[in-house]
């Protein structure tokens, strides 16, 4: 058995991220409100819940934003150290960069954009029982091409690591959480950009280190795209995704204090309505993420979309699979569908845009 109090947690946030797209929202993505809490709160509370006490947050940007939210970690029952890269060092470089802050012989590293239900205690125990140098949390997904494909043999030993392969041999992928024996971390080159996926893991395998897979089938989602973000948020609201940080009743909607919802408005699909937001009667919100201070006009329809802080959605507008930037003003009856992104502060007049498949 591993004593979680003798394990460092390392949380990676930063980089340019191949799959990160500008969300047209001002908050850094790891801090976007997700079921009412900054996204990273869900991960940090899961770390605390597992009995891990010390966290090092390795970031390449906006460290002050994280520090002002989480401080020394005591509110979550954690001790958090922050390490900032002068320029993005990649996932491997980010891990190497936190070495001076590590306290223990075992570290568990997390990609900071993943929502997961994996039992961290069981993962740590598997690592110890199998005497692994590295243990990787692995999951199965429908389309492995966007991830690191990780085949294993009959004993669960990792046989290859194929990042973003076009023709992956298995649907089993790297879930973005690894347990490392400390000396393995010390091997990662310092002071330059290093990819843990493209350089470190293939190197460990060719050097014959013992890299084990821990296959898990609990909830898992990378929140790196707006589509995944709205799905993950809805899953938290509905109780499909677990988070020890959430205390509210699970259900079809989460309406924050100070928000108002008019008569006949329909809120379903794990919709979140932020503080001070106003949703007029007859609006239909399905899987919508409505940040604080948003106004939604009568009869507007918002499906699987993010509406940024203080934006205004006019009466009978239709937003589906979109992201509306902070403070944007979408006129009445506008139609924004299928990946529409509106930059912060932009105004679209009433009836100013519609969507049509006619030629
Ligand atoms: N500190 C720091 N510095 N963190 C970084 C940097 C960097 O330069 N670059 C990326 N990160 C962080 C990101 O913020 C994210 O939390 C994590 O490292 C992974 O980066 P992504 O950009 O989200 O990568 P991905 O989603 O395309 O792929 C990774 O995650 C998949 C699982 O979600 C890979 O690890 C894949 O192998 C994996 O399947
Ligand atoms: Mg990611």
Entry summary:
Belongs to the transferase hexapeptide repeat family. With 359 residues, this protein is an alpha/beta fold.
Proportion of residues in extended strands:
25-35%
Q: Mean of residue pLDDT?
A: 93
- CATH architecture classification of the largest domain: Alpha-Beta Complex
Q: What ligands are attached or bound here?
A: guanosine-5'-diphosphate-alpha-D-mannose, magnesium ion
At the fold tier of CATH, the topology name of the largest domain is: Spore Coat Polysaccharide Biosynthesis Protein SpsA, Chain A
Low-pLDDT runs of 5+ residues are 17-21
Strand line-up in the sheet with most strands: 5-4-1-6-11-8-12
CATH classification, class level of the largest domain? Alpha Beta
Radius of gyration from CA coordinates:
21 Å
N-C termini distance: 65 Å
Count of separate structural domains: 2
């Amino acid at each position: 058995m591993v004593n979680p109090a003798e394990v460092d947690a390392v949380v990676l946030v930063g980089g340019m991220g191949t799959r990160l797209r500008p969300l047209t929202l001002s908050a850094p993505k790891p801090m976007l409100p997700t079921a009412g809490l900054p996204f990273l709160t869900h991960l940090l509370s899961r770390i605390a819940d597992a009995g891990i006490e010390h966290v090092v947050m390795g970031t390449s940007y906006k460290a002050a934003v994280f520090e002002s939210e989480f401080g020394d970690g005591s509110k979550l029952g954690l001790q958090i150290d922050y390490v900032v890269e002068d320029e993005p060092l990649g996932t491997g470089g980010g891990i190497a960069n936190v070495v001076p802050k590590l306290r223990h012989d075992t570290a568990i590293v997390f990609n900071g954009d993943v929502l997961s239900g994996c039992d961290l205690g069981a993962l740590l125990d598997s690592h110890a029982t199998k005497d692994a140098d590295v243990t990787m949390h692995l999951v199965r997904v429908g389309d492995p091409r966007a991830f690191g494909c990780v085949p294993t043999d009959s004993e669960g030993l990792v046989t290859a690591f194929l990042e973003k392969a076009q023709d992956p041999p298995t649907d089993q992928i790297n879930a973005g959480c690894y347990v490392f024996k400390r000396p393995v971390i010390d091997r990662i080159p310092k002071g330059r950009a290093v990819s843990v996926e493209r350089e470190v893991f293939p190197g460990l395998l060719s050097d014959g280190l013992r890299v084990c897979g821990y296959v898990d089938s609990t909830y898992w989602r990378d929140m790196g795209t707006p589509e995944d973000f709205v799905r993950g948020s809805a899953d938290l609201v509905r109780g499909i995704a677990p988070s020890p940080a959430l205390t509210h009743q699970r259900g079809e909607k989460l309406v924050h204090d100070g928000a108002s919802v008019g008569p006949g408005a329909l809120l379903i699909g794990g919709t979140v309505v932020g503080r001070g937001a106003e949703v007029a009667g007859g609006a239909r919100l399905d899987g919508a993420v409505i940040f604080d201070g948003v106004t939604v006009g009568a009869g507007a329809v918002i499906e699987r979309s993010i509406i940024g802080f203080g934006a205004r959605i006019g009466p009978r507008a239709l937003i589906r699979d979109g992201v509306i930037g902070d403070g944007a003003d979408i006129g009445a009856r506008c139609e924004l569908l299928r990946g529409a992104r509106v930059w912060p502060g932009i105004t679209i007049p009433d009836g100013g845009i519609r969507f049509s498949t006619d030629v």
